[in-house]
Each structure stands twice: as structure tokens, then as C-alpha cells.
Amino acid sequence: MKTLIVYAHPEPQSLNGSLKDLAVSTLEAAGHEVRVSDLYAMNWKAVVDAADYGPEASSPLKVALDSGHAFRAGTLTADVMAEQEKLLWADTIVFQFPLWWYTMPAILKGWVDRVFTYRFAYGVGEHSETKYGERYGEGTLAGRRALLSVTVGGPEPHYGPRGINGPIDDLLFPFQHGILYYPGIEVLPPFVLYGTDRITAEEYPDVAKAWEQRLLTLESTEPIAFRRQNFGDYELPSLQLKEGLEPAGRTGFGLHVRG
Question: Which residues contact 86 (CB under 8 A, 6 or more apart)?
Fold first, then answer.
């Protein structure tokens, strides 16, 4: 297995840093190839601008179209092309990051904004009355798996079904479904640690053991059963879930998960 770890935390000695290091050692010891994108250490540029697209940048700038032209022309910046190459190389992508203000750190969102260009991660495939592009279960990155490893400061009940911060599955839905599943990546159930500001040195071995177990089952874990777009569950071209497919009482993001 070839695994790319995308790591987003500014402190190497943080819990996130320890989990990243443990992922590298665990996977390599199991015979897997591992590459790491340490975004802070790379001084990753987090903002999209015309410089990303070289001679393909238009005026006024059209981010989607220009990124697609630059991708096809091979004029994206070297840092972006390197990350796209890593994604195509990988069988599995592990994202290691803290939950900050209900989402990923800005540097990681900037990685997505710049790397997931038009014609690479979206805007591919046939658009017709019977098919609305290759996305949500199809796409350039189909055949790969991803896992979010997330540290959360608050207690687990705060992120439960009735928790004040909202269900963790809802908070992660934009990343898991809207970013990763969109270009075809199968998404595994996340590895979430709660109350991480209070984890002691004595508690860490249990955390490490649980993380090792998840890493060693990456290939056998069933992905989240997101519905595929072009395989009968949605009306086209409205992309509304067909009546009667949802379990009784289910609404919101949960509509887009089978079973």
C-alpha cells in the first residue's frame, strides 16, 4: 500500500505531530510506502491567486477555468503539481489535523483550494440528461481511500447527536463528502480523539494503540456508504434524492448515506 499523509499542525511536538510520526513508523514497519506532506514545514502557500496558473491566468482571474487550463497545459506551479502527483501515486491518503473553529486549519483548506484544480479533481466526465459528470463515487481519484485523523479539544458529548457543537459526522461532512468523495475517493470512518487538550502522558499509550489498530486495518475497513451520484439514487438533472430511498425520519446530510 502506498500512503500519503497530509499533515497540518504548526508544532512538531504536538499530539498531531506524534500521531503523524506514529503513522509513518507503523505503516513502514508493516511494509507500506509512505510519503508525507508537512504543510507548515513546507511553508505551504495557502491562497489561490493568478501566480498559480502562470500564462494561463486570465484578467479578470477565473479561478476554476484558469486552473483547468493551467492543469492541461502543465503550467501549474511546481508545488501544486508535486501534490497532484502524490495523490495519483497514493492508494490511501491520511489527513492529520486538529479541528479548529469547526473545520480544518486554513493551511489545509488552502492545500485543497490549490491542489484540487478544475480538470484534475472536478469538471470531468460527460454532462448529459443521464449523467452529470464523473463525481460522487466516480472521478479522477476513484480507486483511492482516505481517512481523517482529527483531534478535538472538547468532550465527546459536545459533538454527539444532541451536542451543542453539532454531530461530528455533520462537521466532517463537507470534507469527507464534498471534497474527498466528490472526485471519487472512498472515505473511511474518521479517527477522532476528543478532549485532546487534557490527554496526559499516562493516557497516550492507549491513544497510540488505538491509532495503530486503525492504521493496520486501512485496507480492510469498510468505507462510509455515501450514495453514488450516477447510479440511480438521484433524479437527473435536479440531483435530488429520489423519494422513498431515505430511512424513516432521516434528514439532512444523512440522506446521502445508504442504509
Answer: 4, 35, 37
Grid cell 481523517 is found at: 148
Q: What is the pLDDT of residues 123-157, one digit of tens each?
A: 999 888 888 999 999 999 999 999 999 999 999 99
| CA–CA gap between residue 231 and residue 120 (Å, rounded) | 22
Q: Helix, strand, or coil here: 186? A: strand
Which one, of 47, 36, 48, lies nearest residue 8 by Cα? 36
Residue 103 carries which DSSP code? B
Q: Are 50 and 131 in contact (CB under 8 A)?
A: no
Amino acid (one-letter) located at 106: A
Count of residues in the chain: 259
SS3 95: strand
Write phi, then psi, for 233 (nearest 5 degrees): -85, -20
Q: Quick count: other Cβ atoms within 10 Å of Cβ 147? A: 25
What is the pLDDT at residue 77? 97
pTM: 0.95
Q: What is the pLDDT of residue 171?
A: 97
Residues 6+ apart with CB under 8 A from 151: 15, 16, 19, 97, 98, 99, 193, 196
Ranges of residues in the chain with a pLDDT under 50 are none
pLDDT of residue 3: 98
Dihedral angle of Cα 233, 237, 239, 244, to the nearest 10 degrees: -50
Cα(1)–Cα(252) distance, rounded to whole angstroms?
35
